[in-house]
Design goal:
The structure is a single chain. About 35% of the residues lie in helices and about 20% in strands. The chain is α/β, with parallel strands linked by helices. The protein folds into three domains: about 160 residues, Adenylosuccinate Synthetase, subunit A, domain 1 (Adenylosuccinate Synthetase, Chain A, domain 1), CATH 3.40.440.10; about 90 residues, Adenylosuccinate Synthetase, subunit A, domain 2 (Orthogonal Bundle); about 150 residues, Alpha-Beta Complex (Adenylosuccinate Synthetase, Chain A, domain 3). α3 packs across α4. The relative contact order is 0.15.
């Protein structure tokens, strides 16, 4: 079997965790390729509700090998807490592996993330302050520490000394913060390395072997296309590439191995933090949808901004990633609404835009051109066949297909694994 990528089509929080969990039953491996503990995937199954930040969503199947790839920035303490939590609730993590090339989020990354956000004041980006951006900065600056380094005490101490010389200077001279102790950081992270030793290895070889055996491998994305550092609403973006290119560089998998790319979209839009959101709802409707959908960040608990479905952004994400199919989640959240809006274009003055602009000032001036569709006002959660959905719900999904220029492969009508509808054969 080939590889299949699951990517966010909006600003993250689209429900990718449930989709990966649903598909993992048929897979032999699930591999996370980007982001860090700033991303959260919520999975609900027979064991209960789990909010995962680093461990791939396929961990709940005993036959699935789960891989945290080299493109992920690893917070060792968070990972170990997740492993302990899963083990305490009867979930086997013996088939979990971490790339020895994955960069490690260090204490100075977390400190600097918070200090830099505070220094920006009213111009803050809205990061989760978990050190993700500063860790990716060090990766690009060739100052990073990788998971494999934690297993070699001599190498780790040397690399830490080089990094701390620069970071302590920055902390003390620019921000007036106390310097970090090299011994304290070394001892803490060397201990993490020992606990993680059984999990750390060359995961690229594991993935290649699985694909050579003809096994089905799911590539699990974090965040969404509109947060991509190159193609998102820069600078209000994440520090990695949650688009399809990031899957290859974040795992060491050849593009030739990929056969399917599923883009996950909510039936409406949400965004956490700052940045433009052209279809943002007014406060009354936004509050209504937020409470109905439980739209609060799985990682931070921050309320998500809610908006109508943005067809311009969806078409852009589909083009960027080459989606072979899309998934529509949270359809049930819209069940009670008498009417729905979908954005079909943007308007700037007298100009109509049908393509997502790169310019932030231009995007901030865009006004949505809406098409209004009637709501179905009938519960959808108990429905399991596409043809049994209300006609107006089917028409809404059809309009999303048209706007995204891609067929809908799966519809989610609730958080449970079985609350899933297949409009057509998946592949």
């Amino acid at each position: 079997m080939p590889a299949i990528a699951i990517l966010g089509g909006q600003w993250g929080d689209e429900g990718k965790g449930k989709v990966v969990d649903y598909l993992a039953e048929r897979a032999q491996a699930v591999a996370r390729f980007g982001g860090g503990s700033n991303a959260g995937h919520t999975v609900i199954n027979e064991k209960g509700e789990f909010r995962m930040h680093l461990v791939p969503s396929g961990v709940f199947y005993p036959h699935v090998t789960c891989i945290i790839g080299n493109g992920v920035v690893l917070a060792p303490k968070v990972l170990l807490e997740e492993i302990d939590l899963l083990g305490g609730r009867g979930v086997d993590t013996s088939r979990l592996f971490v790339s020895d090339r994955a960069h490690v989020v260090m204490p100075y990354h977390i400190l600097l993330d918070g200090l830099e956000e505070e220094a920006r004041g009213a111009k803050a980006i809205g990061t989760t302050r978990r050190g993700i951006g500063p860790c990716y900065v060090d990766k690009a600056a060739r100052l990073g520490i990788r998971a494999g380094d934690l297993l070699d005490r001599e190498t780790f101490r040397k690399r830490l000394a080089i990094a701390l010389e620069q970071k302590n200077s920055l902390l003390t001279r620019v921000y007036g913060h106390e310097p970090l102790s090299a011994d304290a950081v070394f001892n803490e992270y060397a201990a993490y390395g020992e606990r993680l030793r059984p999990f750390i290895r060359d995961t690229g070889l594991l993935l290649e072997a699985a694909l050579e055996r003809g096994e089905w491998v799911v590539l699990e994305g974090a965040q969404g296309a509109l947060l991509d550092v190159d193609f998102g609403t820069y600078p209000y973006v994440t520090s990695s590439s949650p688009t399809i290119g990031g899957a290859f560089t974040g795992l060491g998998v050849s593009p030739r191995r990929l056969e399917h790319v599923l883009g996950v979209f909510k039936a409406y839009s949400t965004r956490v933090g700052e940045g433009p959101m052209t279809t943002e709802m007014d406060k009354q409707m936004g509050d209504r949808v937020r409470e109905k959908g439980g739209e609060y960040g799985a990682t931070t608990g921050r309320p998500r901004r809610c908006g109508w479905f943005d067809g311009v952004a969806a078409r852009y994400a589909s083009r960027l990633n080459g989606f072979t199919g899309i998934v529509v989640t949270r359809l049930d959240v819209l069940d009670e609404l008498p009417s729905l809006k979908v954005c079909v274009a943007y308007k700037v003055g007298n100009e109509t835009l049908e393509h997502f602009p790169a310019s932030l000032p231009l995007l901030e001036r865009c006004q949505p051109v809406y098409e209004e569709l009637p709501g179905w006002q009938t519960p959808s959660r108990g429905i399991r066949r596409f043809e049994d959905l209300p006609a107006r719900a089917r028409a809404y999904i059809k309009r999303i297909e048209e706007l995204a220029s891609c067929p809908v492969a799966l519809v989610s009508v609730g958080p449970q694994r079985e609350e899933t509808i297949l409009p057509r054969p998946l592949f």
